[in-house]
Design brief:
By secondary structure, the protein is an alpha+beta fold. It has a domain of 93 residues: Cytochrome c-like domain (Cytochrome Bc1 Complex, Chain D, domain 2, Orthogonal Bundle). It has 13 helices and 39 strands. The strands form eleven sheets. The protein has a five-stranded mixed beta sheet with strand order 1-33-34-35-36, with no helix packed on it. The chain has a four-stranded antiparallel beta sheet with strand order 2-39-38-37, with no helix packed on it. Helix 9 packs across helix 13. It starts with 13 loop residues before the first helix and ends with a helix.
Length: 703
Amino acid sequence: MLPACSQSDAPHTDDEAAKGTEVAAVDGKRLRAADGESGAWMSHGRTYSEQRYSPLDAINDDNVDRLGLAWSFKLDVDRGVEATPIVVDGVMYTTGPYSIVYALDPVSGELIWKYDPQVPRATGGKACCGVVNRGVAVWQGKVYVGAFDGRLIALDAASGEVVWETNTIVDNGYPNYTITGAPRVVKGKVLIGNGGAELGVRGYVSAYDADTGDLDWRFFTVPGDPSKPVENDILEMARETWHGETYYKQGGGGTVWDSIAYDPELDQLYIGVGNGSPWNIADRSEGKGDNLFLSSIVALDPDTGEYIWHYQTTPGDKWDYTATQHLVQAELSLDGERRKVLMQAPKNGFFYVIDRETGELLSAENYVPVNWAEGIDMDTGRPIFSEAGDYSEKPKLVTPSPFGGHNWQPMSYNPDTGLVYIPAQYASFLYADSEADPIVALNLWNIGLEPLELPEDPDEIDALAEQFHGALLAWDPVKQEAAWKVEHPHLWNGGTLTTAGNLVFQGNAQGEVRAYAADSGELLWKSRANSGVLAGPMTYEIDGEQYVTFMVGWGGAFTLLTGPLASRIDVQPESRVLTYKLDGKGKLPPPRNEPRPVPEPPERDADIGAESLATGKYLYNGVCATCHGVNVESSGVVPDLRYLDAETHEHFAAIVHGARAHQGMPSFGHILGGDNDQIRLVHEYVIKRSHDLVADIEKASSE
C-alpha cells in the first residue's frame, strides 16, 4: 500500500485517467501548474523553471530554529550522494551511489521498494568523479533513472519493477561513457545526456519515448569524423571551429552531463554543454578555434532536437570551464523592460543573464575572482582573454580552478528577494601543458595537462588547504553584484533551496545542514549531518506539515583527486536521507570517527633510487590520483593506499591488472606499460608514502 498524502486526491487530467494509474501521474499540464500543488516536488528543480524555489512557508524565518529530525534512512553505499528527491502522490523517489533507486514513505522514511540496476563495480573506475547519481524523473506512473553504466531505465512507480531499459551509449569506439545526471521528461520524451568528456567521448543529448524507450532524436554537441556525413546541418557550421584530427579520434568531449531545462511557453529546450576532450585545446584542436558547442548553452526544439540558438560561455576552452551548471529560468526587469531570461553561473566565474527566446547576452559579471579573462565584451558576447590564463608557453596559476567558481551543486532563485543563491567556490590551479601524447585512457595526461602537483609535507598541505574555500553567495542578477555572502572554510559545499518562508537551506562540506535568512544571510538554524553534504535540498508538505530533506554523502571530484586537501575536512563518507520538520524528535547516530591503525609497511627497495622513485610518483599522480588522491593521500571516499595491509602489498601488481575489478578496481596494467616495471615503481612510491605516514604520526605523538 502507498502512504496517504495531501496530494493523492489532486485532480488528474483526462489523459492521466486514460493511463489507468493513480500513482505518480505527473504530466506536462501538472508541472505547468505545479504551484497549485505546492506541497509536492515533482521534478528535479521542482518546476520547469528549475528555480528550486518553494512557495511553502509553514517553516519560516520565525520558527526554523525549531527544526528537528523527523526521520533518516541509510543508503546502501557510502560514496558521494548528489540526488534531489522527487515527492509526488505520497511517495519519495531518490537515488544513491551506483544509481540505486529508493521509494520511501515521505512521512516515516520507511522503504517501499528498492531497485538496484547492478551497475558493474569496475565501471566506477572509468569515471572522473565517482559513482554518483543526481536523481530520477517521474512521469505517468513511471520512474526514470540513468544508470551509471549508460542505461536509461523505466520503472513502475508502484512496484519498482522494470518496464523497459535501453542502452544510451553510441557504439563508436569510445569506451568511457557514463551517466550521472537526472533525466528530464518533456512532452512525453525522456531526455538524458552523458558524462566522460575527460576520458575521450563524444557528447550528445538523447530523447526517448517515455512509454516505449524508443529513440526519438539525438543531438550531437560536437562534430564527428569529417570523412563521414554530419548528423545534422548545424554540425557543418560547428566543424569549421575545430582543427586537426585528435578531437574526433578522441571524441571531442562536450558532454551534457547535468543541466537540462524546458520552457513550455516558448516550447524550447535548453542544454548545458561540458568541456573538451582533451581539456587542452593545444592537444584537442591544434590550439585553434572556438570548438562549438563546447562550454555552451544550446536551445533545441524538444519535438525534433533541431538547433535554435546557442551562446558559448568559453570559446576555445582549455581550463575545463563547463557550461553544464544549473540553468534557471525567470522574468527580470532589465532597463525598464520585462525579459524572459536564462541565468547560469558556470565554472568560468561569470554570471550570465541571457534572453531565453533569442540567446542574446543581456549581462555578465564575475561572481568570484577571475584572472583568465578581463571581462566580457558586451558587443560580441565573447570573453576578453588575458595573458594570465595562457599556459601554452609556461605554467600559469589560473582562477577559477577546474572545480569552478560554481560546480554542479544547484543554485536557487527566490522571486520574493530577487536573489540567486550560489554555492560559490574560491580556488586557483596551476595549469601546465603535458608533454605526453594524449591517449584514450583514465589518466590525467588524457586531459592534456601535467599531473597535479601538491606538496607532501603535512604543514604545507595545511597551509594550502586554507586557500581552497567556499561561500553561500546571494547574487542580484539585475544589478550583477553580491547582496550578501556567508563564507565557508572549505570547498565543495552543497546545493541550495529557497522558500517563501524567507529561507535558504544548504548543507556544507564539514557535515552540517543549515538555514539562513534569504534576505540577509543570517544563520538561523544548523544541525549535524555526520558527512559532507553536496546535493540540493528540497521541501514538501503532507497533511498540512512541511518537511525539508537533505541527501547526505561525501564524495565527488574534489574529494577524489585532491585527497590531501579534502582529507583536511573532518568528515567521512556516510550516505543518508535526512528529513526534518518542526519539533521533530528523531535522533541521528553519532558519526563514524574511529582512528584507523596503520599497518607496518614493507621495507623500501634499496635498488630504487631517487630518480626512479620520482618516476613512480609521476606515474602514480598521472594514473592513480584520479581516485586515490594526489601523493597517495585519500579523503576516505576510496581506500587510502598508505594503509594497505601485507596481503594487498603482496598482490599489488595483480590488483593493478584487474584482480579486484569485481570490487570496483578496474585494470590499469595496460596503461602502465603493459608489464610490471612501471607498476613496481608506482608500488615503491606507495610504500614510501606509507613510511612517511608512520613518521608523521610518530612525530605528532611526540610533540
